[in-house]
Amino acid sequence: MATEIKVPTLGESVTEATVARWLKKVGETVQVDEALVELETDKVTLEVNAAAAGTLTEIVAGEGANVAVGALLGTISAGGAAAAPKPAAAAAPAPAPVAAQAPVAAPAAAGVMPAARKVAEDNGVDPTTLAGTGKDGRVTKGDVIQHLETPKAAPAPAPAPKAAAPSGPRSKADLEERVRMSRLRQRIAERLKEAQDTAAMLTTFNEVDMTNVIAMRNQLKDAFEKKHGVKLGFMSFFVKACLVALKELPAVNAEIDGTDLVYKNYYDIGVAVGTPQGLVVPVVRDADKLSFAGVEKTIGELGRKARDGKLSMEDLSGGTFTISNGGVYGSLMSTPILNTPQSGILGMHKTMDRAVVINGKVEVRPMMYLALSYDHRIIDGREAVTFLVRVKECIENPERILLDV
Questions:
Q1: Residue 269, C-beta contacts closer than 8 angstroms, at least 6 positions apart
Q2: Active-site choice (33, 197, 222, 380)
Q3: Catalytic: 380?
């Protein structure tokens, strides 16, 4: 009896994935719940596990193939004596030749995803008139939503080029290496460009004296780790400082939805994490309800999952404000790009000893530059500067965080 390996549900608004890597070879035995193949979406990498024990007898979608939800990836035969698979089955990804054909080969009705058709019908839109961005030019739910959100009075802008086509012979092609962009990297590029195209983005700067927070951390870190089983880092101080500022300046925790301003009375803080695959932003849920230890434990767990490629869609979805720490890589100053649809992102940087004037005297202090990038459509300059000043005050006087003042 054969068991089919199919693409599972990938999460809201995600309809396709790319076969990143097969973890088992044709002919190898597998156990129940053993990881068989890794799929890469535009948000996360996930594993597909075996639903039954047996032998992997066929790989239908090879590495690099684009597959839709429910598509067949391969088959498992019960028992260890299954027939040897045809070598060709594991050789080439099935979808690739089809993708190279002209898009007119498919009938119009098949060019619209079911979810897209439902949203279109509910809003009186003919989905067959829309340009599809899905596989083989199919219209996706996102295409319909984008059409609905595009102002009707304004002329439609020319579509931005997503990727430059190869420009012919290259003089030093033999010294170059061409690697296909991963789905995650493509999505990162799209979101960064989207932020620049849609938001009126501006950045304001300040600097913070880290003397007191370093002293407090050094004084309490051993006792903190002994009691809570987690190290006391600087990120929890900055998360707590941002919470103080966000509650005072709710526009920084808001977003624009059409012609509405959505003020959020909850605080899901995204923490940017660099991985070998690219930058991801897992979310610390209800950060205002967590203790310092709770924040540190959550960030630590999300960081481990990010590095191991184990983040789920739930870990990455939502978020009301983002913190990015380029200082861990040695960055002295930067202008972070918004994580849309959020209206603000705080950039932390490297702490360096610098000469500063304190009470009329020059002293050497550990200083950090802070940057707040914000959407000027919703946040005024006064609010942005005030936000950054509040964060600075909380870090320079960490007792303000504890006393909520």
A1: 239, 242, 243, 283, 284, 287, 319, 320, 321, 322, 323
A2: 380
A3: yes
